[in-house]
Design goal:
With 297 residues, the protein is of the alpha/beta class. It is 26% helix and 18% strand. It folds into 2 domains: 173 residues, 3-Layer(aba) Sandwich (Rossmann fold), CATH 3.40.50.150; 77 residues, no CATH class. It is built from 10 helices and 9 strands. It is globular.
Length: 297
């Protein structure tokens, strides 16, 4: 894919909205951890795992924690993994709601880059609630979420011997996964990209079950319905990678008709009043199962 941004007209201010927040807004960024190793360090800095039973939802750190001292048990649940039992972490290759977890068996739940992939978010959160001891905590960092500027999470695409992924090869202007229909996105991209590649991109964005396409407010609702108390929440809106647009501007009328409009007003008009937060792309939450609560299902 080309590395050149679309040409900008004279009436543009300093930056088109589809390129993301302007420089003065970048100062609003909160210190949300990004790499899996940083997320794990932050979790271990907040919670004492000595003697604890830890449930990991997502399985990304199963090998990294094998050498951690003093935790009593580490169980990783990941439907993309193979079941494994041995001296290290136990791995269950099923969704958390189908993993057959004992109720009240875990002191802590850790998750990195997984909640945006939970296909049935409410069932998953109910299962997490029930797996925790009363008073136990959930620590989760995840994103980009669907309602954010790059919430399409374009991934799992192979083309001409390369694996394409959103933080390196993103040709999709911010928020257009929410504002364009699949047919419109197809027509916009086909002006510059091969039809076969466009089909893969549009399938990844709109149809693939790799992501759950849940909005910011959907996560808060799922936490609340699972009777998990929100202890803390941090969000991050800065897209910290360059978009890889073609050599010329997109000219499809469905896209050009958006230019000059405030994207938040357009999004609020289309999705409000339930959905209002379209800036947050990454979330870090700490949740707690209240003491004395019954199973949520």
């Amino acid at each position: 894919m080309a590395n050149t941004l679309p040409e900008k007209s004279a009436q543009d201010l300093s930056q088109q909205w589809w390129d993301g927040p302007r420089a003065e807004r970048r100062r609003e960024q909160t210190a949300v951890a990004e790499t899996e190793q940083t997320v794990l360090r932050d979790f271990l800095g907040q919670f004492d795992v000595r003697g604890a039973a830890v449930l990991e939802v997502g399985g990304s750190m199963a090998t990294a924690v094998a050498g951690l001292p003093d935790h009593r048990r580490w169980v990783s649940v990941d439907p993309l993994a193979q079941d494994s039992q041995g001296d290290g972490p136990e791995i269950i290759g099923r969704p958390v709601e189908d993993a057959g977890l004992e109720r009240g068996a875990f002191d802590l739940v850790f998750s990195c880059n997984a909640f945006e992939h939970l296909s049935d978010l409410k069932k998953s959160m109910a299962a997490i609630h029930d797996a925790l001891v009363p008073g136990g905590y959930v620590y989760a960092h995840f994103g980009p979420i669907w309602s954010g500027p790059d919430g399409h999470h374009m991934e799992n695409i192979s083309w001409e011997g390369r694996d394409l992924i959103f933080w390196r090869d993103n040709p999709i202007p911010h928020w257009t996964h929410l504002l364009l229909e699949p047919e419109e996105m197809t027509q916009m991209l086909e002006e510059y990209f091969a039809p076969g590649l466009v089909r893969k991109i549009v399938n990844s964005v709109h149809h693939d079950d790799w992501i759950n396409r849940r909005f910011y407010e959907d996560y808060l609702e799922a936490f609340r319905e699972a009777d998990l108390t929100l202890v803390s929440l941090e969000g991050q809106h800065v897209v910290d990678y360059p978009s890889q647009y073609p050599d010329g501007p997109y000219r499809h009328p469905a896209f050009t008709g958006l230019l000059g409009q405030d994207p938040e007003l357009v999004l609020n008009h289309r999705f409000g009043p339930k959905y209002r937060n379209f800036r947050c792309r990454d979330m870090r939450v700490v949740l707690r199962r209240p003491k004395g609560t019954s199973p949520s299902r």
